[in-house]
Amino acid sequence: MSQQRVPCPACKAPIVFGARKCRACKAWLVPEAQPRVPRVILGGIALAGTIFAVVVGGRESPVGEAPPLTNLDPSGSSSAAGAPRPGSIGPEIEAEPEPTPADPQKRWKTREIRLGDAHPLDVVFHPKGTSVYVSADDATLREYKLKTGELVHKASMPAQGDEIRMLFDRYVAVLRHEDAARIPVMDTSAWDRDPVLLDVGKSPGEIVPMPDGRSVVASTIDGKRVARFDLPTGVRLADITLPHATGQLFLVRAENRPYIGAMGALSHGGRAAGAWIDLFDPSEEPFGATRRSIFIGREPRAGVVSRDGGSLFFPDRVSNKAVLLDIAATTQVKSTAVGLSPEQGFLLNDDRLGVTLDSKARTVTVVDLATMKVTSTLMLDGAPCAGAASPDGRTLFVALGGTERPPKGSGVAVIAGEPLRIVATIPTGPGVCAVDVTRDSSRAVVASYYDKSILVLEQ
After folding, report:
1. What is the pTM of this model?
2. What is the pLDDT of residue 47?
3. DSSP string spanning 184-238?
């Protein structure tokens, strides 16, 4: 007599009714049959205010009304994850006691994790802060356990990742900004499977998670396209082509609902000629049909959204200004002069202060957002190349790698207090290139390219 088959609760593959384990995804179906090993299940709940930004390269393009939308057939979109393949090389991460938030007045301790066989490009914390994900120049995505420094997972990617993004506490997106047209997205709960490939278009820019908890919006620089995808299937749900090269995306709030802010720039004769941000409600159908474009300067760099989602703070590198954009029914743009070549912006101390990292000036400029006046300028021991603010808004970590690519400088500056000041400058290996902070603000991690190492900062 033939055996009755039912779909697996985890991966939907057909399994024999009453089976204890799925042969396709290896999931245990009977709780008491599982090995007695503590596991961490990565949640898929979206954080509506999650914000990511990347540098927008100048591209020559006209500015005008939105072109007709592309009608897409979901059946023609990228497929879901492929067949299982070897990828997991260790146990999943054990839960650790939650550390207390950092006190900037205390001395920072450091621990080093060596990669050995590859150079790190970017690093981001596991949502629980117990491990770090690292993209390396050998086109791998790795996971290292903080407690022991052990490499517990490793997977091959279609190309090396310039930057990585955490999505829904479960997926890691690998961004290659040049010579790429797809964004690989790795499901960190299934390292034995291939990453989902999102067909975004030429020169991927940024990717942000949506409040629905399962869809993402991605942009392209040369492709000038903004598209919405479903996870984990990778199906493209909708897209729109914008008139400018779009590299930065923000999830903001306007008219009491979530909006997408797509920031694009154009150039003439190799020089920055202007930048715009397009605001539209992602829930509208067709996607992006109603939008408004706002002129915001010449060459905006990596920015950040306020906690209430109503303001956007970013530097303009060409005009050497810090810009505050209030997003409402009628938008308002304010600006003030800062140090030479500001590359990145942050909000600190309950969003009362805006901070820019000025690469040529080797300074940090602090702006009072209520008056848009500079309150202080902090001198750094090197040129900043990257920064990360703690989620509580009390501390800023600045990587002093310099402006070369890859960076060659070393050291990380810790900025905190009121008024803001440099409370520590911590030595690192050469080529410090990326930094991240845990969600409880208790730890930071710094990647050093030439040293092939990850430095963990904690108190």
Report:
1. 0.78
2. 34
3. EEEETT-TTBPPEEEE--SSEEEEEE-TTSSEEEEEESSS-EEEEEETTT--EEE
